[in-house]
Each structure stands twice: as C-alpha cells, then as structure tokens.
Design brief:
The complex is a heterodimer of chains A (222) and B (371). With 222 residues, chain A is of the alpha/beta class. Chain A is built from nine helices and five strands, in the order H-H-H-H-E-H-E-H-E-H-E-H-E-H. Chain B is globular, with a radius of gyration of 20 Å. A seven-stranded parallel β-sheet of chain B has the order 1-4-5-6-7-8-9. Classes of the chains: A alpha/beta (222), B alpha/beta (371).
C-alpha cells in the first residue's frame, strides 16, 4: 500500500505528465486509503498543474500539452471533490470569467480559469461570446470579488471598457476588481479603459489576482 | 495632417517602386503595408457582412482604402474561416464585424474520411472572394501588388474538427491530425491555383503554427510538411510567397526561411532585430508595429514613434524590410493612425539614413513629452 506522500506525488505526476486516463484510478486509490480530499487537490493535482504552467512559461509545454494536463486535473477533481468536507469548499474568493461578446475563442480564457481554479478560487465561467450585461448580473448575484474578461480579437476590445462603464452606472464599480487579458490586449489598453489589472499569461493572472485581493488598497496592477 | 490623396499623388506607384527596388534603382520610400483588413469597410462606408456575398463591394472597399492611403499591397481576405466553411463548417456572420467559427464541419474523428477538398468555384464564399479578386486586379492590378489570402493547411484543420479537440489529437491521435491536414492542403492548393489563375498572388496566414500555440516540434511534424507543399506549389506557378504567422515565431524562423518563402511577416511579440539576424539574409521581413496597443489605442505620435523604431531596427536587413502592422488592424482603428504610419514612411524617404532616423525619433519623443 502506498503512503499519502507517494500518492500525492503520483497525482501531481499524472497531471504534469498528461496521464488524463490514469489519474482517476490514482485519485480513487487515494480516497480508498482514507486520505483527505483537500490535500489531494491542493498538494497533488494543483502542484502538477502549477508544474505544467511552469513548463509552459519555459516553452517546454505548449497549448496542446496544457489542455491535456488540465483534462487530467479535472478528471482527478471529479473523483476527489465529492469527498471534500463542506466547510473546506466555502469562503473562497469568487471570480466571474468570460470571453466578451463578439468573440468565440476561449482557449486562453479556459487556461486562466483552470489556473485560478487550481489556485483555489471559486470560478464562475460565463463561457464565450458573453453578452455584456451577464457580467454585471452574475457579479451582483454572487457578490464576486473579481471580473476577468478576455478576447482574442482586437475587434471586440472596446466591449471590455463598456463593462467597466456599466459597473459604474450600477454603482458597484468599487465592489469588484476588473482584470483583462488576451492576445491584442496591452497594459496601455487596460489603463485606458480603467481596468484594475492586466496579465499577459495564465500564470501571471494567478499572481495578479493574488496581489489584487491581498492588497485591497493597491493601485493599478500588472 | 495633409490630405492622403495629395500625399501619394507625386509618388511612385507601388509596382514601379517594387520593380525599381528589385533592380537596385532609386526609389522614393520604403514600401509600407498598414494591413487595414476589414477596416476598409470604414473607409468605403459599408457593413462588413456585405463582404460575404457582394464581390463588387468587397473589391471596391479594398480599392477605396488603397486609393485613400496609397499603401503597397492590397489583399482579398476577410477572416480565417472561409476555407473550413467551404468544407462544411458553419460560420457566424455578425452584421458589421468579422466572421467567426460557429460549428466545425465534423464532431467525430471517424468522419474525417467524409471531408472533401473545397471547390473554389462552388463552395461557400470562395467564389465571392475569387470574383472580388478579378475586380481588384482589373482596376488596380497595373499599379499595385494584388494578393488573395489563404489560410495554411494546419490552421484550417483546427476549424474542421474544433480547436480544442484537434489540439488534443496532436498527442492522442497524430494520424488523425495528418489526415485533417492532408484534406486541408488540397483545399488550399485548389484555392491558390484559382487565385493564380485570376492573376493574383496567394499569401499564406498560418496562425496556429505560432510558438504561442504549438511547440516547434509539433510545427515540424504536423504543419511544416503541408505548408512546404503549398509554398512549393505556389512557387512552381512562378509566384513569390509572403507568409504571416501570429504570436511568437522565433523558434521556427529558420524553418520558414528554409521553405523558400520570399517574405515573412511577424507579430509585435516577436523581435525585428532578432528576426533580421536569424533570417534577414534569406527573406524580406515585414512587421511589426503593435496593431492593438499602438495603432488602435495610440495617438498618431505613438504610431509615428513605433514606425520609426521598426525602421531603425530593420531597414538594413539584407533582403529588405517593409514597415507593416504586426497583424490585421482592428476594424475601428482611427484612420488618422493609419495615415500616420504612411506619412512616417514617406517622411523617412529613401535611402534610409540612420542619422536622420535618430533625429526624427528624438523629435517624436520631444513632441510626446518623453524627453
């Protein structure tokens, strides 16, 4: 029988090494041995996903590899999540994420969602080609801490500024941080529309959110 | 800002400039291509959806923008999905924005065998594009290089089965990806041949080959063989090839140059200087003024500075340099910013003198309050 440490390494390796078909069995073995699910997620699956993200930054892994790593992480989560104690899955910071209206590319957004989820945030994914009002409605409904918007197409960039204007019109701009990203987006554009932060990659997005939520008084972050 | 038409009035025509340049004779300025794309609808005054069915409007808008700015290349190309649509994918057409993929042609790899190469004279919007090319070359073909855009075989494959699905197949079922690329290649070749028969030159966009998306190893295994065949085919018909790949491309520059392309257009996240050192002795380099951050968001002064800095980096590239945006400009890019790019290239003149560039850059920074 494997001890907990060995199984955590095995979970992490399954994600890192793109073993999306075997991770479920390892996760089941981990649960069958009576080890806590939260540990399995945080010190197993998430460690593997962070490793994958590092390999992406080092240009060892690329998008196809990351997608299979994330499939492995979700397959593991599916087994472990039902065993979480209720209190463990509460009191997380909430993030609404989506690709703005007019754009249906969502690889980048999905990676950001996966990385933030791996980092322990509670994600509300509105999907792609999202009607702008839905960002506002969802934010009010769940009292979100962050709105994360992305676009791949330069044609839809102005929609992001519009969401910020809508938040202001609703009088809730100061209750939520807005971060943006995507290929055509730049720091200059983020500042121009009055976003709270911009990140160029999924890994950076996690660091950005950590910083924004740690220091509520901070100014613009990137 | 001077009137655009007046600016270009006394200039060499783009084809005269290109011919003189090829012979090493005197020219008036570097060639320049702001890459206006669907933004031509704003110059001409029509909705982008009119390009989907109205070849005359598609050509007229391109011609109007060319005449307004006087840049050095006109291209019929509206979006990346024209070829997958012609093979059965569904495309979403907003009223006045660029088209997008709605539903891939197939949803299961077992249906790959059912895919057929497109007939450029029958399928989807390909006939509209070809008809527009004929109007284009009839009206301005005697004075400016006219091209027909085609997406590369690897990129097209993703739009047949879905992007995420196909990305996963790269490791899970390589043979399926090759099969998608093979049938895509045939579509690309059919279309390229029709473009050449219409008297234009095909230019290739291959965004999914970017190092931002797939590894150089994946590029070499899955994209390069088919891309090479497309390049060889176009060259065999006596046409030079200009290729654009978005995002990071530094790890595959030498592969691209070895393919025998005449020009390579790079995105703003790639470095002109590095690209010049890597492949400048083999291919003409085009690029890479930031289309979103500078040309769309910036002021005319920002565009001027970006254009000058690009020229300073790359004007001495052995096989030549064309100032260009790093990718297609956003539709709502201010026309004054496009004009600023053209004006800057005109002001620099030819031959490019580095000491004059230094003065112009310093002056630009002074105007912008940066010095």
């Amino acid at each position: 029988m494997k001890n907990q440490e060995e199984l955590l390494v095995a979970l992490s390796d399954c994600v890192l090494n793109m073993e999306d078909e075997t991770v479920g069995e390892v996760a089941q073995e981990y649960i069958d041995n009576g080890y806590p699910a939260l540990d399995g997620i945080v010190n197993g699956l998430v460690v593997g996903m962070q490793g994958a993200a590092e390999l992406y930054e080092q240009e060892e892994y690329f998008i196809p590899e990351l997608l299979i790593c994330s499939d492995a992480m979700y397959n593991g989560l599916e087994v472990l999540r039902p065993h979480l104690d209720k209190c463990e899955s509460q009191k997380k910071k909430k993030i609404v994420i989506g690709v703005v209206e007019g754009d249906t590319h969502d690889i980048g957004k999905n990676l950001v969602r996966i990385m933030l989820e791996a980092a322990g945030y509670e994600m509300y994914d509105l999907g792609r080609d999202v009607v702008l009002q839905r960002f506002i409605d969802k934010t009010k409904e769940i009292d979100a801490d962050i709105i994360a918007m992305s676009t791949l197409m330069s044609t839809t960039m102005p929609a992001m500024g519009k969401v910020i204007e809508m938040l202001e019109a609703e009088g809730i701009r100061d209750r939520v941080k807005v971060i943006i990203g995507g290929a055509p987006i730049s720091l200059a554009f983020a500042q121009k529309i009055g976003a709270d932060g911009y990140s160029a990659s999924a890994v950076e997005a996690v660091k950005l959110v950590d910083r924004l939520l740690a220091t509520e008084t901070s100014k613009f972050e990137a | 800002m001077a009137n655009a038409n007046m600016n270009s009035l006394n200039e060499m025509k783009p084809l005269e400039r290109a011919a003189a340049m090829a012979k090493g004779e005197t020219i008036d300025r570097l060639p320049c291509n702001p890459n206006v794309a669907n933004g031509v609808a704003r110059v001409y005054g029509c909705r982008i959806s009119e390009f989907n069915s109205d070849a005359k409007t598609l050509a007229a808008a391109q011609i109007a923008s060319y005449r307004h700015f006087g840049y050095d290349s006109v291209r019929i190309f509206t979006d990346l999905f024209t070829w997958c649509e012609a093979m059965g994918s569904q495309v979403y057409f907003p009223d006045d924005a660029t088209a997008d993929l709605a539903k891939p042609a197939i949803s299961d790899i077992k249906d790959i065998g059912k895919l057929e190469p497109a007939d450029p004279y029958k399928d989807g919007r390909l006939p509209v594009h070809l008809e527009a090319m004929k109007y284009l070359i009839d009206e301005v073909g005697h004075e400016v290089g006219c091209s027909g855009g085609v997406v590369g075989p690897f990129t097209n494959s993703f739009f047949l089965l879905g992007v995420d699905e196909t990305l996963k197949l790269i490791s899970k079922n390589p043979e399926a990806v090759h099969a998608l690329c093979r049938v895509s290649l045939q579509t690309c070749k059919n279309f390229a041949e029709a473009v050449i028969n219409a008297g234009l030159t095909p230019t290739i966009s291959e965004p999914m080959s970017s190092c931002t998306v797939v590894s150089p190893k994946t590029f070499r295994e899955f994209s390069a063989p088919y891309l090479q065949e497309l390049v060889d085919f176009i060259k065999s018909r006596g046409k030079g090839v200009i290729m654009h790949i978005c995002g990071k491309t530094n790890h595959i520059w030498t592969d691209i140059a070895a393919m025998g392309v005449n020009g390579f257009s790079i995105d703003n996240v790639a470095s002109l200087t590095d690209c010049k050192h890597a492949i400048g002795h083999q291919v003409r380099i085009l690029g890479n003024i930031d289309p979103g951050g500078i040309v769309y968001c910036g002021t005319p002064w920002d565009v001027r500075l970006g254009t000058l800095q690009g020229i300073a980096e790359c004007y001495d590239s052995p096989k030549g340099y064309t100032p260009m945006s790093g990718c297609s400009l956003p539709v709502e890019t201010p026309l004054a910013n496009i004009q600023a790019m053209m004006d800057t290239v005109r002001d620099v003149g030819y031959p490019v003198r580095p000491e004059k560039l230094d003065v112009m850059i310093a002056d630009c920074k002074k105007q912008m309050g940066m010095l």
